[in-house]
Amino acid sequence: MVTGYGAWHIGIMHVSDGPHGVRAQKDGAKNDDSYEATCFPTVSSVACSWNVELIEKMAEGIAREAKELGVSVMLGPGVNMKRSPLCGRNFEYYSEDPLLAGELAAHYIAAMQRCGVGTSLKHYAGNNQETHRMTANSMIDERALHEIYLTAFEIAVKKADPASVMASYNYVNGMPACENSYLLKEILREKWGYRGLVMSDWGACVDLPACIDAGMDVEMPDSMGNHLSDLERAVKNGGLSIEKLDQAVERIEKLTAEYGKNCVSDNQKKEVSRDTRRKNHVLAGQMEAESVVLLKNESFFPLQTGMGLLIIGDLAEYPRYQGGGSSHIHTEMIESVKKQFEKYYEKVRYVKGYKRNTFNRNKRLEQEALRAVKQAVRKGIPILFFGGLTDMAEGEGYDREHYDLPYNQTALLRQILKITDQVGFISFGGAPYDMEFPARCKALLQMYLGGESVGKACADIVMGQVNPSGKLAESIPFSERDVPSYGYFGKQGRQKKALDDVEYRESIFVGYRYYDTFDIPVRYCFGHGLSYTTYKYSNLRVKKNGQTSYEVSFEVQNAGSMAGSEIAEVYVKNPNSDAFRAKRELRGFAKVRLEPGECKMVTIPLTERAFSVYQNHEFQVIGGEYEIQIGASLQDIRLSQKVEIEGREVKCPLTLNNKVPLSRADFDKLYEGKRTHFSQTMPGEFTTKNSLNQMRPYSHLARRWLRIGKFAVRLMYFPKPMHDPEVRMMWEGIADGNIDSVCNQSGGLVKHKTILKIVKAANEEEKV
Question: Does 201 qualify as catalytic in the annotation?
Answer without folding.
Answer: yes
